[in-house]
Amino acid sequence: RRLVKMRAILALLAVSLASPSMSIADSWASTYRSGIHCTPAMHLKGGCGFLGVYGSTLDHNTLRMKILQLSRTIRHRGPDGSGIHMIPLEKDVPGSRISALGHERLAIVGAMDDPQERKEARVGDHQRLHTLSGNQPLFSHDRSAALAINGEIYNHEELKPLLKDKTAFRTKSDCEVVVHLYKERGDEVASLLDGDFAFAIAGDKGEFYAARDPMGVDSMYMGWGADGSVWFASEMKCLVSECKKIEQFPPGHYWSHKTKQLVRYYHPKWFVCEAAQQKLNLDIIKNTFIEAISKRLMTDVPYGVLLSGGLDSSLVASCVVKMCDLAGKPRPATFSIGLKGSPDLSNARKVADMLGTEHHEFHFTVQEGIDAVQDVIYHLETYDVTTIRAGTPMFILARKIKAMGVKMVLSGEGADEALGGYLYFHKAPNAQEFHEECVRKLQALYQFDCLRANKATMAWGLEARVPFLDKDFLDVVMNLDASFKMIRKGEKEQFIEKWIMREAFNNVDSKGEVYLPKEVLFRQKEQFSDGVGYDWIDGLKAHANRVVDDTMFAFREHRFPYNTPGTKEAYLARSIFESFYPDETCIKTVPGGPSVACSTAKAVEWDAAWKQAAAAGSMLDQSGRAVDVHDSAAKCF
Question: Between 425 and 119, where is the model more confident?
Answer without folding.
Answer: 425
